Predict the structure.
Amino acid sequence: MKWAVVYSETPPKERDCIVLPLFTDEIDRWDPGPFGFAGEHACRALETGDFRAKHGEIHVTYPEEGVGRFVLLGLGERDDLGSTELAAAFDGLGGRVLDMGLKSVTILMPEGIMEHTPHPVRLVIDGLSRGSYRFDRYLKERKRSKLKGVMILLPTEDRLKEGLADARVGQAIAEARRLMMDLVNEPPNVATPDHTARQIRSWFKDGDGSVKVKVMKPAALEKLGLNLVLAVGAGSANKPRMVVIEYRGGRARQRPVVLVGKGVTFDGGGLSIKTAEGMRKMKEDMSGAAAVAATIRAASALGLRVNIIGITPLVENVIGPSAYKVSDVIRSYSGRTVEVLNTDAEGRLILADALAYAVDMKPSQVIDIATLTGAAIVALGREAAAVMGNDREVLDRLREAAEVSGERVWEMPMWKAYDHLVRSKIADVRNVGEKRDAGSIVGGKFLERFVGNTPWTHIDIAPTFADEDGFSTGYGVALLLTYLMLLDR
């Protein structure tokens, strides 16, 4: 798909579709004059109350004079519009564009959006791309998108430079997000640890050489002592892998930011087996790993001046003759011993080894991202990821990235009062608490034991990784890339 950002005082007279976003509190002041016959159609919709510009509302008219469709897109009240809401409105529009079979779309950006929302062009591109995405490769009859080009028309010429820069970022996010969603949506009989590792490697094969990818197989993992990764994957015939992605965009001596992503390609719970319903979305339990790899793909495409290392342990957590057991005590890569009280709390185990491995790389900071706990969903619903960590500056910057990217986060406390929840009587740490108290925080407290004094942030994306139909949302790419861009300022 081709994207163009231009400035023009008047909209094009011939176009497959023109989209006009409107705020609820400005429809009474809107001037239809520049839009000709299409504007008259829109005016009728406003006058009759057929369109009230509620957030996400879409009204289609058919002017028949050069413009195939004139679409009014509701943004809701101006004061309620943030990055999340803007991206969501265009996400909804993307689905309608796909359904209508449009070949080209022109979006008329009102000045109100440009003033009210940071980087709106970036959000429009990401939202529209996300909404028009469908995972249909296993359907005999596919509904392929016919959309070939999108033009974003800016209201003033002085916005053009910013808009063009934003479009470049938006395209990088949109492409990376689609790669991530394709990988996460694959069925687990296809997306084994080995297949996933090979797919991630393929994302970087045509680059400029700034990215190096290493795939570790079980023998290498055993030699390094990554015993938690090996234990979780021991029950499966599809043996573990760990992918290390190294992007060098910064100075030679600049310490890297390490991103660690949980990569459980299917989670049946192991011997602490899940219910059938509980397994339905568990092919997507590798969303963190996919987000890390996709983010580095986008960072390299943009040439960010930051050194980044991605670490993605990849396992299947299923029952088999060699499966690890409840009450096992395993010595981790860090040397700490772990008492396993629930084999379905496996994500924190593979992350623990990966985090300790990351710390040995002497990074400036480590960020892990994982579909870790259902408790995060109980706490936050489906609106935000839970975050926690040990460095105030990093957490504040991550919150800023969330506000810009539209991918929300909410910080959870990491008080020492919670430390006892992961204490074990026979090992250095246990992988779950005795009760259901503070489940998301317990996951963070467990991981904290493996990072020492290194600045570290944990992002629990269990609330945000999938949509209502169980498909990947691609959450994490925009958040992490925006965060890395803040480091590159």
About this structure: The chain has 14 helices and 18 strands.
